[in-house]
Design brief:
This protein is mainly α. It is about 55% helix and about 0% strand. It has helices spanning about 35-80, 90-95, 100-120, 125-140, 140-145, 160-165, 170-180.
Length: about 210
């Protein structure tokens, strides 16, 4: 009994090879990276330049502005006291009951006007600034002599309007201290040039001055 094995014959049906046609990729819209970068740098540079200008202005003019504003406050408050338009008569009377507020408050107003004029003019500036710090420090006497006028329920953390009014004098004292520190000892307006240099002893060579 014979068996017939199938014979593998090459297929005669050849299909044409189809070429895979790929469509051209759509190019993404091109952005001008240089323009975008310049715009970002510009947006960063504008506030930086503004802050640089503001810092430079403050460095050159802050002390003058501080002096003029402090002088304006003293003149304004002093005029109110002299003309009897100030509301501090009761507070002053409670703070210094041994003085009559009807003449003591106008006297304080005259002193404040003189201090304000001294700041504006610039004469005897250091003496004026020391007087201002002493005057402002004296206002805290109200916390000792008239605490009921300064706080609620004797609680120093619960300041009323008068207490806030006096407490802000710490800022004015600091401003006067800054102005005093910026006033050069060698450029004193007292008419006398003060010098803190140590005088050379006998046989010691004098110390040369800076810039000499």
């Amino acid at each position: 009994m014979s068996t017939t094995q199938p014979v593998n014959r090459p297929s005669t049906n050849t299909e044409p090879i189809r070429e895979k046609i790929t469509e051209p990729a759509v190019a993404a819209p091109a952005f001008d990276t240089d323009t975008t970068s310049e715009r970002q740098h510009f947006l960063v540079r504008v506030p930086a330049n503004a802050m640089d200008w503001l810092s430079g202005f403050a460095a050159n003019n802050a002390l003058t502005v501080l002096r003029c504003v402090l002088a304006l406050v003293y003149l304004w408050f002093g005029v109110l006291k002299v003309t009897g338009k100030s509301d501090v008569f009761g507070l002053v009377q409670a703070t210094v009951p041994w003085f009559d507020a009807h003449w003591f408050v106008p006297m304080l107003g005259c002193i404040e006007i003189l201090l304000g004029i001294g700041l504006f003019v610039g004469r005897f500036r250091r003496l004026v600034l020391v007087g201002i710090m002493g005057h402002l420090a004296g206002t805290f006497l109200t916390f000792i002599d008239a605490p009921s006028w300064m706080m609620h329920n004797a609680n120093p953390l619960l300041l009323n309007m008068n207490g806030e009014f006096v407490l802000k004098n710490l800022v004015l004292i600091t401003g006067a201290l800054v102005l005093l520190g910026a006033t050069s000892a060698s450029s004193s307006r007292f008419g006398i040039r003060l010098s803190f240099r140590r005088q050379p002893s006998a046989g010691e060579a004098p110390v040369p001055r800076a810039g000499a």
